[in-house]
């Protein structure tokens, strides 16, 4: 039997999720239209879509400027990329028709909730990139250890490095 393309199992897992999301969006849209009226629901959809389009332009340009500034300063651009990606995806959520995607989009666009999403998005990106890609994007990792405890990352990956005792460094040769 031919198992098919490498991405086929992943696509099969996504299909039910997006089908369920589409059904939920439709049910929510009908409920909101009954609550506020069909005309107001359509108007709200148009307004949030226009807001999403303008925010896509704004956050896209802001992310590009931040990336260029990081590159010019020699800083790793990872944090700005994560923030820009969350904001951009939030703007896309607002652009899509539907009230559930609008709520998710607003959560991604608003600064307080975006700050809550930032660590999760960073860990997800680091896990997708691996240690080499994450180091290029976020810079070297900083690990604190106690005396006698081996330097080991949470994933079990061994971190090579040099331990310098601050007392020896201050005393000099």
From TrEMBL:
Basic and acidic residues composition bias: residue spans? 164-173
Q: Which domain of life is it from?
A: Bacteria
A GO cellular component entry from the record: membrane
Q: Which sequence ranges are marked TM in the entry? A: 15-32, 38-60, 81-100
Keyword terms of this UniProt record: Membrane, Transmembrane, Transmembrane helix
Ranked from the top, the taxonomy reads: Bacteria, Bacillati, Actinomycetota, Actinomycetes, Micromonosporales
- What InterPro entries does the record point to? FxsA
This one is known as: UPF0716 protein FxsA
Q: Which organism is it from?
A: Phytomonospora endophytica
Region ranges (Disordered): 140-173
């Amino acid at each position: 039997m031919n198992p098919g393309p490498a991405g086929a199992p992943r696509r099969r897992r996504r299909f039910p999720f997006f089908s369920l999301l589409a059904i939920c969006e439709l049910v929510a849209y009908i409920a909101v239209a009954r609550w506020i009226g069909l005309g107001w629901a359509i108007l709200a959809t148009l307004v949030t879509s226009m807001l999403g389009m303008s925010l896509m332009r704004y956050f896209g340009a802001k992310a590009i400027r931040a990336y260029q500034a990081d590159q010019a300063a020699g800083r790793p651009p990872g944090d700005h990329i994560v923030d820009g990606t969350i904001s951009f995806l939030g703007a896309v959520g607002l652009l899509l028709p539907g009230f559930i995607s609008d709520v998710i989009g607003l959560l991604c666009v608003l600064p307080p909730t975006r700050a809550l999403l930032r660590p999760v998005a960073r860990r997800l990106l680091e896990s997708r990139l691996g240690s080499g890609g994450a180091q290029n994007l976020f810079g070297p990792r900083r690990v604190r250890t106690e005396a006698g405890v081996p330097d080991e990352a949470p994933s079990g990956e061994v971190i090579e490095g040099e331990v310098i005792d601050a007392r020896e460094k201050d005393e000099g040769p």
